[in-house]
Structure formats: C-alpha cells, structure tokens
Amino acid sequence: MRLAKYLAKAGIASRRKAEELIAAGRVEVNSEVITLPQTLVSETDQIKVDGKNVRGAENKVYYLLNKPAGYISTVRDTHNRPKITDLLNAAPARVYPVGRLDADTTGVLLLTNDGELAFRLTHPRYRVKKVYRAWVCGLPDSRTIKNMSEGMIIEGEKTAPAKVKLLKTELKKRSALLEITLTEGKKRQVKKMCSASGHPVTKLHRESFAGLKADRLPIGSYRLLKDNEISMLYRIVGL
Ligand code: URA
Fold it and tell me: Tens digit of pLDDT for each residue in 40-55?
C-alpha cells in the first residue's frame, strides 16, 4: 500500500494531509525519513509520524474475552474440543490469544491479530501484570505466602517475585482464596506455584490482564478494546 494511503487508513490524516506530512519530512519508515507519498509500505514496516508509532492500517483488531471454563486457548485442535475462537464467531478477522489460559481457567483473555503487540505483552521483559484469583485447598500460612511472593524454584527455574494476598479463608471447607499478581507467564504457573506450596488450586480465574478487566462483560462474551485501552497496551510495552 502507498504510504499516504496507509496513513489515511490508519486514521492519521486525510490522504491529502498525509501527503503534506510526508513531503514535510515528518514521516519515518523503518527509521528513515521518507518524503515520497507513493512509497510502498506494508504491515511489517515500522512507521512513525513526528516520532510516534502509527498503528497498522491493516484492520488490526483487539478483543477482550471473558473466558468460560471448558474452552481451550488455541485456534486449532486435532481433538475437536471447544476452542475460544468458537466464541468469536461474529469477529471479522482471524485473531490469536495473547498467551494462554488453561481450559478450566476463566476470566480475561485478550485476542488480537497484532503480532508485535501480542509478542511483547507475553514477553517477561515487559513485566505485564496478570492478576489471578485462585481457590486453593488448605489454609496457606504467612510463611507460605511470603515464599510464593519472593519467588520459588519450579522445574529448576526461579519464578519472578509475585504479589500474593490472602483474600478469604473457609475454615470449615479448609480452603482459601488467594489473589496472585504475576509479571511473567510460565505455563500453568499459578497452579504449579500453589501445588508446590502444598495448596493445589481447585478453581482459577484471571481478574485482569495489563489492568484490563472483564467488569460487566458476561462470561463467554467479548468486546472490542477501546482506543485508549489499545494505546495503553502500546505504551506499557514501549511501542
Ligand atoms: N496459571 C495457571 O496455572 N493456569 C492458567 O490458566 C493461567 C495461569
């Protein structure tokens, strides 16, 4: 696509204004100032106007799903099990989950076709916060909670420090509700941390991802992210 059209489609300016921006030397493609509006660009090029990234014009979409239990976080499955993408029938574009939730985990899951953003949101380097509520067996004591918070060795690797809060205890049922905030996303990390502490998880829910919550979204439903939410995601991963 031509650069001026790309900028217009991305909502930066009208086509004519975009041509003016380009001619004025305010547009960079892959760190090089480009002054020809008809220069061809594609989604893989990094385009900036006045030093700020332009989000792709290629119909990038961003959804927040309130995932129900019983759905796997994959787009393809050889065993014909229910998949999260089965819940997105009305979505116009092919999207992928940003990280994974286990089939029995419920709660916030982002889906997008914006590969670079998804990659960064799941990379431990960007320390994106994921808040979980985990019902566990037994009543974790303060030392256990401290150990979980400080990082534990799981399968030979130390987990990053986490925030762990005891929200509730059910003395009769001998179970407890923990709020666990992670800034990394190792596979089945919450369940492994809890099991390794002697408190297996019976129910797991993700309250928020990067501060985004499902709020009034019914379980099994999804919504488009708002522009300010997308900009916030870009900002926290340095795009
Ligand atoms: N940790 C888990 O153990 N399972 C999930 O689904 C997410 C985080």
Answer: 987 678 889 998 888 6
